[in-house]
Specification:
The complex is a heterodimer of chains A (about 130) and B (about 190). With about 130 residues, chain A is an all-alpha fold. In chain A, about 70% of the residues lie in helices and about 0% in strands. Chain B is mostly helical and about 190 residues long. In chain B, α2 packs across α4, α7 packs antiparallel against α8 and α8 packs across α9. Classes of the chains: A mainly alpha (about 130), B mainly alpha (about 190). Chains A and B meet through α1 and α2 of A and α2, α3, α6, α7 and α9 of B.
């Protein structure tokens, strides 16, 4: 307990004596508190369940979605050069670009670049003709 | 008799559960918590009880962090003081809102009522004067004055509860006493010997 200065002692005693709340009904207080605690626990449980359900939904839909959009297997695609395997396997649609890249990877010289351009633009045109 | 060493798992099994610790916290601090909330908010008893319950509910989730009782008590009263400050701030906002819209019979005007002091022996004039004088104090001064002079905490404990430096707490205390003396002097001269 703090020792009060004599000047303050009377003042503090006056305040303590005249300015106090009525005693609390402990039983009622505890009952109210228990009700609030229970409802808080229930809310928290409901929130946790909802969060878990949302997480399951998100992960499930993501997994299903990724299966639906999975590109067709490219294992059977005729890949002659093993160096192009990685590019070809990445996407079956990019086969055309894979071949061009293959050219590019093989030869960075000017004739090599012409060869790549030839593969990209001229050969398909020639085949059509 | 030889003391049997207690293993960590045994200690955990022997340790009271969170609910038991909570029940003990409520049992120990219920009365004082309501009193502090009442003195800090300056509202009626039901509001003070609500503020005290809010503080207990907030304390519930963090109970496992504390083993030391005194440390837990300081922490709990810190929550309580913050809850009371929030309540006062919210009341101030409602009052300003009420003033702005000229509402005369809404909740904002109800909080102007004096606290329901039911100390039979207390002089109602002195009581109202004290309530008025306490309203003159800043929230920090009011909290420190209440904790130290009315609730018996040391200045250091009160400073820890209010999360301020002990020097600042002493300064709050000095100013609070000065204000209260000047506000209550005429009344005390009439009442006193």
């Amino acid at each position: 307990m703090t020792a009060h200065h004599p000047d303050n002692r009377d003042l503090i005693q006056d305040i303590q004596g005249a300015w106090s709340p009525p005693p609390t009904d402990a039983e009622r207080f505890d009952a109210q508190l228990a009700v609030r605690l229970m409802s808080r626990k229930r809310r928290r449980t409901a929130l946790m369940v909802a969060t878990a359900a949302a997480a399951v939904l998100v992960i499930g839909s993501h997994l299903l979605g990724s299966q639906a959009h999975e590109p067709p297997a490219v294992a059977d695609a005729p890949v002659e050069n093993p160096a192009t395997t990685a590019v070809a396997a990445a996407d079956a649609d990019s086969m055309f670009w894979g071949q061009a890249l293959d050219h590019d990877q093989r030869d960075f010289s000017l004739p090599g670049a012409y060869g790549a351009l030839d593969t990209l633009f001229l050969q398909p045109y020639d085949q059509e003709l | 008799m030889t003391a049997v060493p207690v293993t960590a798992s045994q200690e955990m099994a022997l340790a009271p559960s969170r609910d038991q610790r909570f029940a003990r916290l409520v049992e120990q601090h219920r009365e004082q918590a309501v009193r502090v909330a009442w003195r800090l908010t300056g509202e009626d008893r039901s509001t003070a009880e609500e503020v005290a319950q809010d503080a207990f509910l907030r304390a519930y989730s963090g109970l496992s962090r504390f083993r030391d009782e005194s440390e837990m008590s300081t922490w709990f009263f810190r929550i309580l003081v913050r809850q009371a400050a929030n309540r006062r701030r919210w009341r101030g906002l409602r009052q300003r809102w009420g003033d702005l819209w000229g509402a005369s019979n809404d909740e904002g005007s109800q909080v102007e009522q004096a606290p329901d002091v039911v100390v039979a022996a207390a002089d109602p004039v002195l009581r109202d004067r004290i309530a008025g004088a306490m309203e003159r104090l800043s929230p920090g001064q009011r909290a420190i004055f209440t904790l130290v002079h009315l609730e018996g905490f040391t200045v250091r404990e009160a400073a820890a509860i209010a999360a301020i430096a002990p020097g600042t707490a002493k300064s709050h205390l000095h100013r609070a006493l000065k204000t209260l003396r000047s506000e209550l002097r005429p009344q005390r001269e009439e009442v006193g010997p």
